[in-house]
Amino acid sequence: xxxGIILAGxxxxxxxxxxxxxxxxxxxxxxKPMIYHPLTTLMLAGIREILLISTPHxxxxxxxxxxxxxxxxxxxxxxxxxxxxxxxxxxxxxxEHVRGGPSALVLGDNIFHGxxxxxxxxxxxxxxxxxxxxxVLFGYPVRDPERYGVGEADADGRLVSxxxxxxxxxxxxxxxxxxxxxxxxxxxxxxxxxxxRGELEITDVNRVYxxxxxxxxxxxxxxxxxxxxxxxxxxxxxxxxxxxxxxxxGVRIACVEEVALRMGxxxxxxCHALGARQAGSGYGEYVMGVAEQFRG
Length: 296
Prior knowledge:
296 residues, alpha/beta, seven-stranded mixed β-sheet, two-stranded antiparallel sheet, 23% strand, globular
């Protein structure tokens, strides 16, 4: 799997006034921009060709931050979503980017963390790329599944039902904002009709794979964290989570330079140079330290 999309659009209205002047996905989660989290999620899956979709107003900010991705060994392109017309519209806007092969979609405000997360992602991406399955969704146990899209799987992990904010959920697995699809997703997204709220729903795309018997639900259970950052409280919770782990363990979560180095996208000299450009901060010092340790 080589292609990925980050959907970082929307108005962020639940975070007003923070997001009146800046994209939600450019806000800090403790020590780095929120967008670093979905970006490194795709990188950990082995994806280097990435399309970032956002509003015309916010795209210049992402371009200033990430550029074309070359310094991280990536190819980052940009596309506009003028209005929030649904998650599945990402595959309409990004059709030429992903057409002809498997791809991943991650939402710009979702944070994933856990031991062996990268190896699990690469394994599931390989399952899609090989044709063993057409779609992999990621389910996370929550106390209040009635607030989410909920997936139910059989003992083999095959998806058997999807419900959107059900009154009586059939499982406690919320569908997270990370999706792996085969090449059919472009045609499927183009074929669905807008919902009652006028959006192209990702749940409708997933239901097509479900009806084909080609959808699986990967459980993110004990040992994993899934956080979204749509409210002031959840944004603060995410920052606290990152702060505690980083300060306790001495490592940085979603450090794009470190992930690029460990994935083999760049070498230690390039990583050190990226750190040196930020040497006035603890983050830059950490990146240089990672490069020096890698050399050793």
